[in-house]
Amino acid sequence: MNPSAGRFYSFYFIGFTFFCAALALGESFGMSARAIGFTFLFATIALYAGVGVLARTSDLLEFYVAGRGVPGIANGMATAADWVSAASFIGLAGIIYHQGFEGLAYVTGWTGGFVLVGLLLGPYLRKFGRFTIPEFLDERYGSAVALAGVAAVVLASFVYLVAQIYGVGLIASRFVGVDFGLGVLIGMAGILVCSFLGGMRAVTWTQVSQYLILIVAYLAPILVLSVERYGVPLPHLAMGEMVQTVAQGVAERRDRPDEQLARALYRARAEQYQHKIDALPDSLAEERETLERELARLRQEGGDPRTIYHLERQRQLLPTTPEAARAHWRRLRDAALAQARPPRDFSRAWHGDTPAARQHARINFLALLFVLMCGTAALPHILMRYYTTPTVSEARKSTAWTLFFVALLYLGAPIYAMLAKIEVLQHVVGHSFDELPAWLVSWYRVGLVAFEDINGDGRLQLAELAINPDGIVLALPEMGGLPAFFVGLVAAGGLAAALSTADGLLLTISNALGHDLYYRHLAPQASTQRRLVVSKMLLLAVAIISAWVATLRFDSILLLVGLAFSLAASLLFPTLILGIFWRRASPAGALLAMALGLGTSLGYYFLTHEAFGGRVDLQLFGIQPVACGIFGVLAGLAAHVVVSLVGPAPSARQQALVDFLRRPS
Q1: Which of 361, 483, 528, 632 is deepest in the core (most CB within 10 A)?
Q2: Which residues contact 318 (CB under 8 A, 6 or more apart)?
Q3: How far is CA 514 from CA 94, 96, 138, 381, in A?
Q4: Is 373 exposed, middle or buried (0-12, 13-18, 19+ CB in 10 A)?
C-alpha cells in the first residue's frame, strides 16, 4: 500500500476507534440501544459514501480496473471484504451451530476456493490484462462463448446480489427499527454512491474501509467474552474446553425423558403434516372448516382470547390453493422433523442412524466442499479483482493476503457457535418459561427464534427451541450480556459485509452488460464518455431491480445463495480452467460445457429440492440440492473434453493465447 493510502487508513482506523469509544461512553450516560444502532447505521454508510466520493473518477481505466494500481495487500483486503458477504458474516456461525463438524464444509470450501484462485486462475487472468471475464472468453473461444459468459456472470451474480441486499434490510429492520423496505433503500443509497461515482476505484478503497470495520465488529465480542469467561485474550486457546462443555451439555440433555417426549411429539406433528400433504386437496378444505368451526365454538363459549387469537392467525395464514398448502405444510413438516432429531455432538464427524446414512453424510460433505471451492474460484466479482493489481506478482501476493484476511474471520465462526451453544445449554434450556432471558424474547418477536412448551411441563427443552442460523452472530452479544454498544457494532459489521459484497456484485453485473454486451457487441464505436454513461445507467437499473426483488422477501432466498455457487462452478469453472491450460479446448466444447453444466445443476436442484416440488428419494448418494454443482462441473468438464477432442481444433490465435498465459510473470 502506498504511503498516502497507508496514512489515510491509519487515521481512519484511529478515528473509528475513537468513534466506538464515544458510543460506549454514551451508553454509560444513558444512550439507548436504538440510538446506538441508528448512529452506527448512518455514520458508517456516510463514511463509505465519503470514501466513494473522494475516489470518484471519469477515467475508463480507473472505472473498470482501478487504474491497475492497487497493491497486493490492499487488493487482498478489498477482496476479503468483497468475499465476506452477509451470508458469511451472519450465517456461517449459525451453520456450524446447527451442523457441528459438517458445517465446516463451508469454512474449508470457501477458503479453499482462494487456493484454487491463486494457483489456477488469478495470475493467468491478470497476465491476460483486460477488464472482465467475458473478455477473456471472447479472446479464447470467440463471441458466442463470450455472450454465454455474459449471461453466466449476470445470472450467478444477480442471485448473490439479491441475498446481500436482503441482509441489509434484515440488519436495518432489526437493529434500527426501520421498515425492511426502507432499510433496503438506505443500504442501496450507500452502495450506489460508491459504485456509481467511481466504479472499481471507489469500490476498492471503500471495501478496504469496510473490511476494517467488519473484522473489528466480528472479533470484538468473542475476544471480550473469552477474557470474561476463560481468562484468555484469544478465544481459540479455550476451544478445547468449549468443545468439552458443549459435548457434556448435549449428552446430558439427549436422553432425558422430557427431551425424548418433546422429540416424540414433534415426530407426531410431522406425521400429521405429512398426512395433510398426502390428502390434498381435500385436506385443505377440511382444515379450513375445522378452524372455522373451532373459532365459532370458542366465541360462543367465551373461550380464552389468546387461543382465539392463535386460531384466527392460523386461519389467516392458511394457504388458498393446494399448491401453496403443499409448500406451507412441507415447511412446517421439515421444521418439526428438525426439532425431532436428537441433538448433534460437535465432535462427531458424520451423523446418521445407519452406516448408509453416515456414508451419505460423508459424501455430501465432500460434494459440498468441492462445489464451494469451484464456485468460489469461478465467482466473477472475485476474479475481477485480479485485473486491478499492477503486476502478476502483486496478483499472487494479493491472494495470500486475501487468505489471511478471510481466515481472521472464518477462524472466529466456530467460536461464535461454541459460545452460543454454551449459553443456550447453561442458561436457557431446562429453565421455566418465566425465567427465559430477555434476548430470547426479543429475538422471538422478530422471528429469528421460536420456542414452545410442546410437552406441557412448563420448562423449555432443547428440542423445543429453534434458532435461525442468521441469529447466532447477531444475538451473541446479547446472549453474553455485553453492553448494547457491542450489539450495534456487530450490526455495523454485518452491514459492512453486505454492502461490500453488493458493491462488487453490482459493478460486475453492470460491467458485463455495459462493457461486454453493449460496447463489444452492440455499439463498438461508442465514445468513452458514452460507455461510462451507459455502464452507470445499467448499474442504477440493476440496483433498482435487485432491491425490488429483495423486498419480496422470498422464503427460499437464502437457499439460492448456495445455488449461486453451483451456478458459478457449473457455468464458468470448467471453461476457464480448460481455456487457460489446454490448447485443444474448443469453442464448441465450451458452449456445450456451459449449457450442459447449467442444465445438469438446475435439473438436479429442482428434482431433489422439496421446496420446488422435488423428491428427496431422487438424491444420488445422499448429495443434497445445495451441492448440485458437482454434477454440473463434472458433466461440463466431460462434455468440454469430448467435444474438443472429436471436433475441429481451436484457431492458431486461440492456441497461442494459451502458450502466452502458461508462464505468468
Answers
A1: 632
A2: 284, 287, 288, 291, 325, 328
A3: 38, 40, 15, 15
A4: buried
Distances (CA, A) of 212 to 52, 219, 500: 16, 11, 11
Angle at CA of residue 231, ends 227 and 236, nearest 5°: 75
> Whole-angstrom Cα distance, residue 657 to residue 651?
10
The number of beta carbons lying within 10 Å of the beta carbon of residue 453 is: 14
Please report, in angstroms and rounded to a whole number, the separation of the first and last CA atoms in the chain.
21
**CA angle at 78 for the pair 75 and 84, rounded to the nearest 5°:** 135
Q: Which amino acid is at 33?
A: A
Which amino acid does the sequence have at 587? Answer: P
H or E stretch at 645: helix 629-646
Chain position carrying cell 390453493: 321
Q: What is the CA radius of gyration of the chain?
A: 26
User: Residue 456 corresponds to which cell in the numbers above?
Assistant: 406441557
Q: Where are the extended beta strands (E) located within 200-272?
A: none
The single-letter code of the amino acid at 168 is V
Q: At 465, which helix (H) or strand (E)?
A: strand 465-467
Cα distance between residue 203 and residue 194, in whole Å: 6
Q: Which position has the grid cell 400433504?
A: 277
And the C-alpha cell for 475? 444475538
Cα–Cα distance measured from residue 150 to residue 78, given in angstroms and rounded to the nearest whole number: 24
What is the C-alpha separation between 169 and 223, in angstroms, rounded?
28
User: Which residues, other chains included, contact 449 with Cβ-Cβ below 8 Å and sequence gap of 6+?
Assistant: 440, 443, 465, 466, 467, 468, 471, 475
Q: What is the DSSP string of 160-193?
A: HHHHHHHHHHHHHHHHT---HHHHHHHHHHHHHH
Among residues 643, 658, 509, the alpha carbon closest in space to that of 577 is found at 658
Burial class (CB in 10 A: 0-12, 13-18, 19+), 183: buried
pLDDT digits (tens, 9 = 90+) for 446-503: 777 888 888 888 888 999 998 888 788 888 998 888 888 888 888 888 888 888 888 8
Q: Which residues pair with 449 in a beta bridge?
A: 467
pLDDT 10s digits, 283-317: 888 888 888 888 888 888 877 777 787 788 888 87
* pLDDT at position 555 over 70: no
Q: Identify whether the C-beta of residue 401 lies closer than 8 Å to the C-beta of residue 73.
A: yes
